[in-house]
Amino acid sequence: MTTEFDQYQANLQQIQTTMLYGQANRIPLLKRILLALDQPDLKYPIIHVCGTNGKGSTSLMMSQLLQATGLKVGVFASPALNDPREMIQVNRQFIDYRFFNQAFDQLAAGMGRLGMNWAEISEFEAWFLIAVLYFAQAKVDMAILECGLGGELDATNAIATAAYDVFVHIDYDHMALLGDSIEAIATTKAKIIRAHAQVINYPDQFPVVNAIIETIARERAAHYHSAKLQNVLLTKGNLDGSDVLAKFNGADLKLHLSLAGAFQVANLRTVLTFVASYNRQPIQGPITAEILQNTLKDLRFAGRMQLISQDPLLYGDGGHNPDAFASIVKALKPYEKDYQIIMVLGFLKDKDVLDNLDLLQDLKADYIATTPDNPQRALDADTLRELMQKTLPAANTITAVADPANALVYAKVLAQHLVKPLIFVAGSFYLVKTVVNPGE
Question: How many angstroms separate the Cα of 119 from the Cα of each of 13, 19, 44, 50, 125?
């Protein structure tokens, strides 16, 4: 007898692993599929999240705050760390095998009516379409959809409309696909803006990015809100999170944000700007000061500045671009004086490896190069070690251990010989997933 899990595994085999972004404008095709599926994306309001870094953290904060008001909230986000079903969640629960299979069959039937088969859509497109079908089936009150990369040509931009377009930090990334200037990157991302949507913009964008987003919002009769106007003061910050003083409903509000990193305070300003807009017309009850205090202090985000163990002290972060690495270095620098830092690094070869390493030049640490779990795209450990030797003058030692699990064992053995060690694993989600249990 075939179980739902067996059917799920069989269905996964039919989904293509090819990336089709950039080959052509895929949006008209995806819109035709959504139309054949009876527009499931119109059955609930959508928050569309776009940008380079901070999508996951910002989506997590918004989803948990909305859920705390009593809403059923769907989230489509990538990449997954361990289980592909992580990409589709309702109230923080992964889509189960039965509902995945039902949505898969619905999608197959819809494509069949158009004379299409699975070879004609990419893996990301398939998961996006299954997500919007499942959210309709689950009768969510709100859905949060994260762009995979890009904006205008991203699969998620096939949706008919959005209630909110939320922009996180936009920086240089995926330049071969998005353009070689910040103006080009910002323009393609800003083109997700829908007419009459509430547009929420991250507080610390490049000035030209602000101008592009505000201009396109105005052209599309959307309502622009800058998080620059949201006053949040960082009073204490470390790898355990941040204490901040915020203005909320005209009064001072003390908050503890459990997500670590100074950049999370900027993400929080974006979220509080969303909250102010949402509270003008909440679906159910408003997001209150009490909800903010109780929710933000207990957030956990697998693979982002995540505390994995206390003994030894071990953190993991899947950030892979220079903007993310700058945040990692900024978070680690205060620990350099009192801790002996051990960096376990692994990258995909199509990432900005040299730019990331340049940011680590002044960080005194023992470095271990390893090979992320992605045979087609991973940069091998020996090559990474050679690059490290050329670019990391402050390194105590530089070692290559190809297997990520063995690299972590080596780091823990090294830590036993240090007085106050801190192990940090970074460079790729394909690396971090080998040491992170997202269920913790």
Answer: 11, 11, 29, 27, 11
Q: Does position 439 have pLDDT exceeding 60, yes or no? A: no
Neighbours of 410 (CB within 10 A): 19
Q: Which residue is associated with the tokens 């990474």?
A: 384
Residue 61 is which amino acid? Answer: M
pLDDT of 402 > 90? The answer is yes
Task: Please report the sign of the dihedral spanned by the C-alpha atoms of residue 425, residue 429, residue 435, residue 437.
Answer: positive
pTM score, whole prediction: 0.91
Residue 318 scores a pLDDT above 60 = yes
Half-sphere exposure (CA, 13 Å, Cβ side) for 285? 10
Structural domain boundaries of the chain? 4-296, 306-432
Is 214 within 8 Å of 189 (Cβ atoms)?
no
Give the residue-averaged pLDDT of 336-353: 92
Q: Give the fold, CATH level 3, of 4-296.
A: UDP-N-acetylmuramoyl-L-alanine:D-glutamate ligase (3.40.1190)
Domain 306-432 has CATH 3.90.190.20: yes
* C-alpha distances out from residue 417 to 149, 369, 398, 414, 432, Å: 42, 19, 16, 6, 24
